[in-house]
Amino acid sequence: MVPRPPTPLQRAIEETLRDLRTGEVVSYGFVAEQAGYPGRARAVGTFLATHHDAPNWWRVVAASGELRAPRTDLQTELLAAEGVIVIDGRVSRPRSR
Asked: pTM for the full model?
């Protein structure tokens, strides 16, 4: 089966993820807003759940700061390598919308 080309929403999410800097932690809602799709935080979550190779995926957390990636252990490790403190599965203050 031939893979489908990415949708405009998917391309915008990926571009937004590529722009995240080392140590920058943002919410799903922030990514949606920056991508030009405010209110589509769940679409960002769906994108990340189905695109395991998405750039900078580990820098995206819930608005509460909670890690929600399928592999929170790996997400914690990658964030810690960038100097982000994760305590009990949360970062202190992600950039949110």
From this structure: 0.91
